[in-house]
Amino acid sequence: MYQVQQLIGGVWGAGGDAGRLTVLDPVDGTPVSEAPVATEADVGAAVKAARSAAPRWARTSPAERAAALRRAADAIEAVADQLAEVQTAELGRPLALARGGVEAGVSTLRQYAELGPVRGGRSLAGDAGAIDLMVPQPRGIVAVITPWNDPVAVSCGLLGAALVTGNTVVYKPSERTPAAGFLLARLLDEHLPSGVLSLLTGDARVGAALAGQEVDVVAHVGSTATGRSIAAACARSGAKALLENGGSDPLIVDGDVDPRWAAEQAAMGAFANSGQLCVSVERIYVLRSVANRFLGALVQSAKAMRVGPGRDPRSELGPLVDRRHRDHVHGQVQAAVADGASVLLGGTVPDGPGAFYPPTVLGECTDQMLVMREETFGPVAPVMVVESFDEALSRASNSPYGLAATVLTASMSNAQRAWRELPVGTVKINAVFGGAPGGAAEPRGGSGQGFGYGPELLDELTATKAVHIGAPGGEGGRW
Question: What residue ranges define each of the domains in the chain, with the CATH number in brackets?
Fold first, then answer.
């Protein structure tokens, strides 16, 4: 079993007197990791240590900070298998997906190591005898609060961007994946000055206590409810809230595409990582002209997916993160059926241990159903048949969330309309996943605010200062 320690002010094993939490393997319910629960005093001590280390780290040259990230990236890459295994143990993720998350995290650290030193401000054209500059500076202390569904990749993005721009960090990983956060923090800390990074573990109360501290930025990836609480805390403290929260991402299937190919895309989008991705396909609108063939192919694609333990290389879908989350997913499915949805595949809780849930396809769905309005975050594909692309676009746009959307179409005019009109941060045409490296978007509505990825994240984590340097006045008037 993984024994997790906290890091406060350069000291591993500090604090944690509020108790211990145990994470159970979602495959069989056996304990896999144990972590301390931070006290209010621990949270305050971590922030104080970060504040103390901040001036020195801010003065460290960007090249030196980037070199530290590169060394950390190399160290993480060297133990990628171990970091994948701990994810599989804590959240049931298939090993290949877990390793892909580690590789993505390593790539992100290296990307920010390259971008950090070449970022600069700009000079302004002012008086001939003066110098005018706009200079980015570290914001100070960044509280990084990360989710369980892709713990290494997401954490590397926020931690790497915050550190390379000269901020100190207090890092709180999800209580469902504390060992993944612990191992990642150890590897980073080995290459950073004491106090630059602190690690706190515990439940939502610890995250709330950290968000309420006198920090400069709270960067959070997770649920909309938690994001709103963090935004309220930041409004009180004056900290900047950087949020990527829940989504109810739509998929539109136009009437001019191959329905079998569209079904393969839909299955990938709805069922990858057992539907536990921020940008999972959560609701599907298919035009009536291809609906029957699409639904038949979607059921066949879902049937072909192998569900099993993440350690089994044949498994395509692992369990959900725990039984509590499975109850949430199944509850939404049951509510949809009670409201008139038809179960075309799945929709039942399997016998036996663990938190497994089958790929589920629902037909005859309506706008009023929770599965079409809220984030399910499970392997569920609810489908509504529509009469036109206009109707699909209108229904897809009618959501309090604004994270991402996908449109499958052979019509360039429909593709152009879709990316212009859909009120989301990311629009993908003819691919549920993919995109050029370095892409970044701002979520909208209940899905958050601010850039969470790409070069723009470096701008989010710095504050720009305007500087005017004029010659001294009086007699002489020169330097």
Answer: 2-245 (3.40.605.10), 249-429 (3.40.309.10)
Residue 173 Cα distances to 11, 206, 382, angstroms:
18, 10, 31
* Angle ∠(453,459,465) on CA atoms, nearest 5: 170
Closest to 366 measured CA to CA, from 398, 389, 388, 390: 398
Nearest Cα neighbor of 48 from 10, 20, 12 is 10
Query: 330: closest CA among 376, 261, 282?
Result: 376
Tell me the C-alpha distance between 424 and 446, whole Å.
11
Q: Closest Cα partner for 448 from 226, 181, 205, 284?
A: 226
Q: pLDDT tens digits, the chain, 479 residues: what are they? A: 999 999 999 999 999 999 999 999 999 999 999 999 999 999 999 999 999 999 999 999 999 999 999 999 999 999 999 999 999 999 999 999 999 999 999 999 999 999 999 998 999 998 888 999 999 999 999 999 999 999 999 999 999 999 999 999 999 999 999 999 999 999 999 999 999 999 999 999 999 999 999 999 999 999 999 999 999 999 999 999 999 999 999 999 999 999 999 999 999 999 999 999 999 999 999 999 999 999 999 999 999 999 999 999 999 999 999 999 999 999 999 999 999 999 999 999 999 999 999 999 999 999 999 999 999 999 999 999 999 999 999 999 999 999 999 999 999 999 999 999 999 999 999 999 988 888 899 999 999 999 999 999 999 999 999 999 998 887 766 77
Which residues are the active-site residues?
244, 278
Reading the block at residue 80, the tokens are 């990628």
CB proximity list for 176: less than 8 A, separation 6 or greater: 23, 90, 91, 148, 321, 322
Four-residue CA torsion sign, 146, 149, 152, 157: negative
**Do the beta carbons of residue 299 and residue 361 sit within 8 Å?**
yes
Max Cα distance, the chain (Å): 90
8 Å CB contact between 153 and 102:
yes
Strand order in the sheet with 20-24: 2-3, 31-36, 20-24
Strands 20-24, 31-36: pairing is antiparallel
SS3 278: coil
Residues 164-185 as b or e (16 or more Cβ within 10 Å = b): bbbbbbbbbbbbbbbbbbbbbb
- Which string of DSSP letters, residue by residue, matches 448-474? EES--STTHHHHHTEEEEEEEE----S
DSSP state, 242? E
- Token pair, residue 126, equals 């002012």
